[in-house]
Amino acid sequence: MGLGFGVDALLPKARGGGQLRMGLVRLSQGDWLQPDPNLAARAAAFADWPQGVQLTDAADAPGRELAQMIGVEGALPEAARAVHEDMCLLTQASSGEPYRLIGAAVAWPSDWHPSEKIGLPLRALHAPIVGYEEQLASGVDRFMETLKPGAIYGRCNWFIAATGARRWLEDRAPQEAFAHVTADNAGETLFVRSERQTLRRLPETGAIVFTIGIYAEPLGKLDRGNIAMLAGAAASLVVGEGDRRGAPAYADALSQFAKQGTPL
Length: 264
Known about the structure:
264 residues, alpha+beta, eight-stranded antiparallel beta sheet
């Protein structure tokens, strides 16, 4: 069972609102990373936003192991430039200790800055996500502890943004960012962003590689079933999570657009 690549392929596998869940699926080696990445776009993105690369000393050995696995010279930054996916490395100081972010090579972040996250443990990394501590934290910790080399797992999520840019760093309040959105123009002014995330353990260093493949499309370009799912999900997000995602500023327009005719 794979995840596919692209927003329309990923959305049916994503959570449609309600309680948080990991939603992991087992992937084959062939489904790990997107084939035929646009390496020119990756190089330009890293050159334009060098602060997307954040490394601790502990990232060197696993970064080199990852680069060798992918088939390139170098360490984590070179590995991430050679694929479509952004890449992060997590390790624990000793058994029972929390996993921490020791390296990040992120060209296309979903509203986060690696410089603010480097060195943090998993629970602190996810602190902005409403409900994470209560609903997911213990399960994620167990998964990280028991993940074996060779196994690859994937999941996906979705966001609604006011831009289709792959690097999404929103500094406006939702009411301002979505002020121009109406039911009539939502197909062109709302952008659906999905992260195709994977997790695997490196066999030599034991570090966990977390990859994030970014896909974004205008709402109106999506399958009608996916549009209907998003409309329902935006209205049923966990209390507080919807506010974090800005849902109150766009949910009505999205819902009304979903009820209209064939999308653009």
